[in-house]
């Protein structure tokens, strides 16, 4: 894996050096940093790296990405300067014409937020795992200790294809599928699109995204969960961020909690952004319920673990101070080009 990252870095830098024009430079960006790029493929291969080496490899992945992005930006500026110089020499400029800008696209706010979260957890040694959006009722509910009469299974909240297949309402089924494989310890996050029968408004949508995390190992405690989420909050919202855990109930974790962070606008003093409370709720978490472990073939007497889940749109709305999540889906260029 280390040699592969080194090869990708050298190959990317060489491709940037040999690229011709801004279009060629953008092709290099997509080839290495895009959704199906070579570096992204390495992230999906983190599951093959031993748990001891994952933090180091995760750090190397982040360093490789940073080096490639820095080289891309430097080369882009040089190309733009050379292009302008060439035009000034070769063309007669009509100063009455409006200026033309050669715009290069960039990531959607959701994508930018997701990459930031993945960077944080990959740096902690987590692997990124994906799963099917059309899921069996068993994985979406039963294997998560959600009984048949639970309100979450009501057709008003869940899109049913038939009595056994649903559009997943969370990415927790990916965690169950990984646990069933029996390859312990587990340290993973599962980002992806989920579906619920919600009315569209400023804070709800029938289709949105979640990022759920899972750690299973010997001797894992609630203290490990608190420490992990505190470091995550500091990396995402700033080093002065504090976290608060409030008791809650989730069928698949026991004990469970909801997590608040100090408002990053006022530092916890209270402002319009946090509605004067000084705290903002960001996610739910808890220790994996022993029955959930048993159903996946893991001995709860030997292993324990924690899980957490956060809405990707919620992170984007908070981080970029967006007050209506519908803006994320309208594809209005006036809005998107601000990021």
From TrEMBL:
Binds 2 magnesium ions per tetramer. CDD domains: PheRS_alpha_core. Residues 117-330 form the Aminoacyl-transfer RNA synthetases class-II family profile domain. InterPro entries: aa-tRNA-synth_II (IPR006195), aa-tRNA-synth_II/BPL/LPL (IPR045864), Phe-tRNA-synth_IIc_asu (IPR004529), Phe-tRNA_ligase_II_N (IPR004188), Phe_tRNA_ligase_alpha1_bac (IPR022911), Phenylalanyl-tRNA_Synthase (IPR002319), tRNA-bd_arm (IPR010978). PANTHER family: PHENYLALANINE--TRNA LIGASE, MITOCHONDRIAL, PHENYLALANYL-TRNA SYNTHETASE. Its EC number is 6.1.1.20. This is Phenylalanine--tRNA ligase alpha subunit. Keywords: Aminoacyl-tRNA synthetase, ATP-binding, Coiled coil, Cytoplasm, Ligase, Magnesium, Metal-binding, Nucleotide-binding, Protein biosynthesis. Residues 65-92 form a coiled coil. GO terms for cellular component: cytoplasm. It catalyses: tRNA(Phe) + L-phenylalanine + ATP = L-phenylalanyl-tRNA(Phe) + AMP + diphosphate + H(+). Mg(2+) binds at residue 254. Belongs to the class-II aminoacyl-tRNA synthetase family. Phe-tRNA synthetase alpha subunit type 1 subfamily. It is found in: Cytoplasm. One of its GO terms (molecular function) is ATP binding. Tetramer of two alpha and two beta subunits. It comes from the Bacteria. The keyword ATP-binding applies. The keyword ATP-binding applies. It holds the Pfam family tRNA-synt_2d. Gene3D superfamilies: Bira Bifunctional Protein, Domain 2. GO terms for biological process: phenylalanyl-tRNA aminoacylation.
């Amino acid at each position: 894996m280390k040699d592969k990252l080194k090869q990708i870095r050298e190959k990317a830098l060489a491709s940037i050096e040999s690229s011709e024009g801004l279009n060629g430079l953008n092709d290099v960006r997509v080839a290495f940093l895009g959704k199906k790029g070579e570096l992204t493929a390495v992230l999906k291969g983190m599951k093959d790296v031993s748990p001891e080496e994952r933090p180091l490899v995760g750090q190397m992945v982040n360093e490789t990405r940073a080096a490639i992005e820095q080289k891309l930006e430097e080369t882009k500026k040089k190309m733009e300067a050379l292009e302008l110089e060439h035009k000034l020499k070769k063309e007669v400029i009509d100063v009455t014409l409006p200026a033309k800008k050669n715009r290069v696209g960039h990531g959607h706010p959701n994508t930018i937020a997701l990459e930031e979260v993945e960077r944080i957890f990959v740096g902690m040694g987590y692997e990124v795992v994906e799963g099917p959006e059309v899921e069996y009722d068993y994985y979406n509910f039963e294997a998560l200790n959600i009984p048949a009469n639970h309100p979450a299974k009501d057709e008003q909240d869940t899109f049913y294809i038939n009595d056994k297949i649903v559009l997943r309402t969370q990415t927790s089924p990916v965690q169950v599928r990984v646990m069933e494989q029996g390859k312990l310890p587990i340290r993973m996050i599962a980002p992806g699109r989920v579906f619920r029968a919600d009315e569209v408004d400023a804070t709800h949508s029938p289709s949105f995204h979640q990022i759920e995390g899972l750690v299973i190992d010997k001797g894992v405690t609630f203290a490990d969960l608190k420490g992990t989420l505190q470091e995550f909050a500091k990396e995402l919202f700033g080093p002065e961020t504090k976290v608060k855990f409030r008791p809650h109930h989730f069928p698949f974790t026991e004990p469970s909690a909801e997590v608040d962070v100090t408002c990053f606008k006022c530092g916890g003093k209270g402002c319009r952004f946090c509605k004067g409370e000084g705290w903002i709720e960001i996610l739910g978490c808890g220790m994996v319920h022993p029955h959930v472990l048993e159903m996946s073939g893991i001995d709860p007497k030997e292993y324990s673990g924690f899980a957490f889940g956060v809405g990707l749109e919620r992170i984007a709305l908070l981080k970029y101070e967006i007050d209506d999540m519908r803006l994320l889906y309208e594809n209005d260029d006036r809005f998107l080009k601000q990021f």
